[in-house]
Structure formats: C-alpha cells, structure tokens
Amino acid sequence: MVSDNLIKILDNSIKQNRISHCYLLSSSSNIDINESLIYFINRVNNSKITSLNENELPANVMFFNEDLSKSKIVSVMENSTLASFVQNAYKIIILKEIDKASNASLNALLKNIEEPSSDTIFLLTTRNINSVLPTILSRSIVINIKAPSYLDIEAELINKNYAKEQAWFFSYVFNDLSQAEKYLNNDSYELVLNLLDAVHKSFKEKYHLYVFLTKFSKKDNKNTMAFLALCLKFIFSWIWNKLSFKNQLMKKVAGKLKDVKIDYFALFTAINEYLEAIESNENYFLQTERMLTKIVGAYE
C-alpha cells in the first residue's frame, strides 16, 4: 500500500515544480516499501512500471537492493553523470537500506548528492533512521512511510473480494496488502478455522496444537507455517486485545484464554524468533521443531 504521506509530499513537489535530487524513505522494519518506490518512479516519470525486478526496469531506473559497497556506489555515481537513456524522464537511482552502507561508500555518495546532474534523483530507504549519517539526512527530503491501519488493510482485502470476516481477521495478521498477498490463497481461511479449532482443543490437551502444526513442518510448507505463526500471534493477543467477535469459535477461544495458564512472554518470544530466523540458512525442520517445542512448553 502506498503511503498517504508520500503521495501528499510528492504531489505537492510536482505541482510546485520543486523536485528534490535526493529523497529518503524511512519506514519500520515490518513495512514493505516497494509499492511506495514504484509509485514514486511512476509519478515523477509518468511511467507504468509494476515491479522492481531488475530485468523489467527501464534503462533510466537503477535499483540496488543489497550491494552497497564503495566500488558499486562509485560505479553508480559515474553512471549518474550520464544523460538519461529515456527522453523527458528522470534517471532514478534507488539505494535500499542506506544505513547499512559503509562510511567509505557514503562518502562516495555524498559528493554526487551535493552536485547532482539535473535529471538525476537519488531515492534512498532506511528501516533505522537513527543509523543514517547526519550528512545524508541533511541533504535529503525525508518521507516517513507509515504502516496502513487495520481499517485500510481490511478495506483493500474486501475490495479484492475477501468476505468481511476474513478481511477483518487478516487485517490484524498482516502489516500491509503486499504481505497479505504473499501468504494468502483460496484455502487460507479454512486453515485459520482449523488452527482456531486446534488452539481451542489445546486448552484441554496442549499437544493438540503441536500435532496440528507438525503437519506443516516440511520445508515445502515454509510459507504455510509462517502464515500460521503470524495467525497465532494475533489469536493469542486476544488475552489483552478486547475485540468484538462474530465468529462463534473465535468467541470461545477468546473467552477461555483468560482461564488458561500460559507463559505468553515465552510463547511470543518463540514465535518471533522463528519468524525472524525463517529466511536464514538454518535447517528448517529444526527451526520449526524448536518453535513448536517452546510453544507447548509455554503451557503451564
């Protein structure tokens, strides 16, 4: 979902013919910023790109997602002095997570930001603005990319033909529409109902939840397990989030949470550690088994 803040700032800049040569998009770690980057490119260049895939980008857009070494940035800077390959369009150089670049790399970047060619825009991103060099901040227009609200996500999902109950549930599970689209399919809500049933039964016998989740412990089910872990975080948050439920099974689960002895700190720690490590090179089965063991162990 494109940030309203970005739309407002960029539209005003274009109307006033005051496009800056360096923008820094600042977001939290749980926001997919790519939609905002795509919107920026299309808005300033009147283009219609739909992806940041390097093989699909036009010649005037350069996207660097990981390699922010000095040699790479120097190469980028040399290219930035050349005329745009596309007539009547800005050359846009995207450098993601600029806070992770070395000082040597950033020093190479600073000179070009201070003396940019007239048709070049540097588009930087960060998920940790406190780690961005002050000299970069002072030369950038900083745009804070805020997470969409639950109501925003729910409305977008309803617009994509999800039933209201499903859209409501998923709006609390996912940070934005991009994340939802990564995990959801036609069977997702049925899986949620099965998960709720397993959680409900686990209040009498904790291993019901373990047995249900182990069905998805094979590596080809990685996305499904991540989806279930995200759903579990929402479900167990009902112990303190007082929500209004229409679904009867949800009402039963929420009503019994206060009577069940669970170490919620240990439970949420286990789920968060799993979600943070899921893309690492560690053995997937061992990761999953460790999380499931800790979840069961959180039941007192």
UniProtKB/TrEMBL annotation:
SUPFAM superfamilies: P-loop containing nucleoside triphosphate hydrolases. It holds the Pfam family DNA_pol3_delta2. InterPro entries: DNA_Rep/Repair_Clamp_Loader, P-loop_NTPase. One of its GO terms (biological process) is DNA-templated DNA replication. It comes from the Bacteria. This is DNA polymerase III subunit. It comes from Mycoplasmopsis agalactiae 14628.
